[in-house]
# Entry
Amino acid sequence: MRAPYGLNILDNCLTCPVREEHVFCNLPAAAVQKLNEIKSTAVYPKSAMLFIEGQQPRGVFVLCAGRAKLSTSSAEGKTIITKISEPGDVLGINATISNRPYEVTAEMIEPGQANFIARDALLHFLREHGEVAVRIAEQLSRNYYTAYEEIRTLGLSASPSEKFAKLLLGWSNSTSNGDPLQVKLTLTHEEIAEMIGTTRETVSRLFSEFKKRQLVQLKGATLFIRNKPALQKMVNS
Amino acid sequence: MRAPYGLNILDNCLTCPVREEHVFCNLPAAAVQKLNEIKSTAVYPKSAMLFIEGQQPRGVFVLCAGRAKLSTSSAEGKTIITKISEPGDVLGINATISNRPYEVTAEMIEPGQANFIARDALLHFLREHGEVAVRIAEQLSRNYYTAYEEIRTLGLSASPSEKFAKLLLGWSNSTSNGDPLQVKLTLTHEEIAEMIGTTRETVSRLFSEFKKRQLVQLKGATLFIRNKPALQKMVNS
DNA sequence: GGCTTTTAGTGATCGTGGTCACGGGTCGCC
DNA sequence: GGCGACCCGTGACCACGATCACTAAAAGCC
# Structure
């Protein structure tokens, strides 16, 4: 069976490959069973919005396939991307737990699939399954540390080149498959600019400069990191 | 009895004036009793460090008197102040709960007093008193939202004047005593600069400019906000 | 295959805010 | 009182990156 957008529907993406930070993985069978009852699965095209900054929290989304960008923007239209979420991530958890409006907008940047768990059902489920509630608390704590890192990056590193280098190193470390020195580029320069708080043109120039300085090399959509120590020295915080 | 630095020692600053966000206020008598057993009180001079960024978490500090600045700094010596903590605030809670190194440095900017609760004792106490654990979770969530606001400020508002206006408005809203249009200035220009990610000189110039534009007026150490709408229009995010 | 739309690269210009330098003011301390 | 440490104000200079403008390339789309 083929879903729209050439995507295979996954029967149950709650039972995902083990990744330590996955909130809903490696749970007791009873909990998984209950989760399957209260979740609903949907397929999303590229550019679909899972939720929008400022909306009342309806519940959480567990990303099964495809990636989503989390962003927030100002009245003047300037946008910052705070995170690129990958399959396994739980989106909207802070807003849902504390019952405040979603603080970010979640938009699919690839076609994908996600499970939705409504707020009421989730809270009820958490009360019954304390061990999952603990996982949620840990996730909240991790979110805080991630946000904190972002503050350090934005507040302490002055130059775009520094932030750019930090972003590249972050990508090379979190590379899911194989060689940590090659990174598949999937974002536009515009999106990269929104991640490091600069402009598209500056990102273009940074790529040129880094290539010229032999720090990186570009083959197709794959970026090879040629001089990791130099990059690390630029970051050096 | 007089403590050093002309400070009265407070017998029990856990029973503080009610402020909604105070984690340890308005607790059942049994919990307060237990807290008093596991806490220890100390007096700190100005510039004393409660804990330092990167240290293993020893426990939490409940600030009773005096204020502390929370800051983080980069290898090159650049520093950002993320928060000015007031009496009643609990410091070091994220690190202590998640057992990661303190992410900030807490330094007294006035002589003061704080209760210390060691990590083990606190965790044991939380297990016995679920209602306090819930308060802690709420506090963690608040911390996240505060951090998130900081990211928006740093990432979205380009100009120092915008961030400066936002800071002033924040102060005027959180003014503890009376008139929200007058603010007691207690930080040096240097510290203000570290809060909005700019330099001391720029802060000086911003004060001059805002005074010239009749936005604010300075009498001694008190700042009067003369044109709040104009300030809000500058922020406008 | 040719069309529009999106993404990338690059030059020219210009403003903002960082940096450096210096003078004056205030507080605390021997 | 006088000295030193720490703040605060302001001018001059300059580099960096935002903005604008335009072309080129690549990617969807009938």
Observations:
- Chain A has a mean pLDDT of 83.
- The CA atoms of residues 172 and 178 of chain A lie 10 Å apart.
